Amino acid sequence: MGELKTGRGLHQEVGISRACNTRWGSHFKSFNCFILKFGTIMDILDNIVETAHSMDERSGATGYIRIAQTYEIAFMLHSMKEVLGITNDLSTCLQKKEQDIANVMLLVKVAKRRLQELRENERWDLFVVEVSVFCIKYNIVVPDFDEPYNIMRMAELYPDDFDELSMCALENQLANYIIDVCDIDKRFSRFTWAL
């Protein structure tokens, strides 16, 4: 698009490289670069749509744009960046030729604790805000998580964990929880959730 200067050794740190199957660090770098270059990637795909020589190129680029500009993709990109960032030191340590088992065990404990902290309310809220800010920046529709049944939409992001039977059970548990909270705990009385 004429925005980058060409030459030897330029743009090596910000390029999206092919991830290696056995190196978590390469995946971590790829997810970071994809997030950082998301706008540029969308611009390039838009350019392909406008200048494509074939319908296959045009429809492929259009499909990539449609998929990439969803909350689910933004959520997955940021989730993978967080998880791989937390485990990056452990990954680097495990790849060394000489292993320091005591250090590896310490890094396993640190990674486990940080992953558990990610699931805690305050850290989780910050993560959801980060994803939402990214979505707003790139005009991606952010679900309204104040509505109770959007929890069901969040569960749909984890199809391996929530099969059809689990989704049905979750829907019933959610309805029971809302009724219990609204009837018992007065702190939640401001919510007017219709079931």
TrEMBL record:
InterPro entries: AtLOH3-like. This is Uncharacterized protein. It comes from Solanum commersonii.
